[in-house]
# Entry
Amino acid sequence: MSDYAKEDVLVSADWVEEHLDDFRSDAPDYRLLEVDVDTEVYDDEGHAPGAIGLDWETDLRDTVERDILDKEDFEALNERLGITEDTTVVLYGDNANWFAAYTYWEYKYYGHDDVRLLDGGRDYWIANDYPLTDEVPEFPSTTYDAGGPRESIRAYRSDVEKGIDSDLPLVDVRSPEEFRGEILAPPGLQETAQRGGHVPGAKNISWADVTNDDGTFKSRDELEALYAEEGIEGEETTIAYCRIAERSSVAWFALHELLGYDDAQNYDGSWTEWGNVVGAPIETGDAD
# Structure
């Protein structure tokens, strides 16, 4: 994986399998976290040995504020999981790492240096017959002192508004149907906005375009070509968004970590915020 801009941000299933004893150890050197939209598949269908199951909606977010955890709550979560600032944290999850990528971004936001994604996520692990267990691990609690926040990787609504005025690259990673305003959410998922469409000037580059059919990330050359086709080459601030920021976290990971575009940002308010703001400019149909 050394062809990517940043080494060790993406690990293979083989690498994880080789480190299973480390992930099962009480020592806080390594922790493996499975992050899903809920913990049903973790509980009912098994998980990688040593993996701790996290519910993205209740464990990684403030359910009242609909925001990421504040620093104190993030610290408390890590202390409960037996993680220190020096722990190698490896994340994986369902939907080709949608929620794991969001959690990766959240760890980076709070300054955790050594956090990685399992390439391909949960589906790849299962499809390729890597070991599963139904045992739920427990680890000794720790103390954790979060850094940051690193605001340079996070975009707010005001940043998107400035991006429109400055003609900065805005990447809408949702489906074409969502982008055009024909639907408000992927089929079967909750509609979270009053209006459909996209941020004016945004380019529709689906999150799925950055991954292969098996959920692993495409090569650096393929990713560079994908974004360059829309004029995105890392020379300007680039803001990615989706519906609730989980899919845009996959795109942010590709842009910021794999391509090394340091000015890439994730707009975690995403369409749930923008599509509900009175007076926010919206376009429908295909991009120009």
Observations:
- The first helix runs from residue 13 to 18.
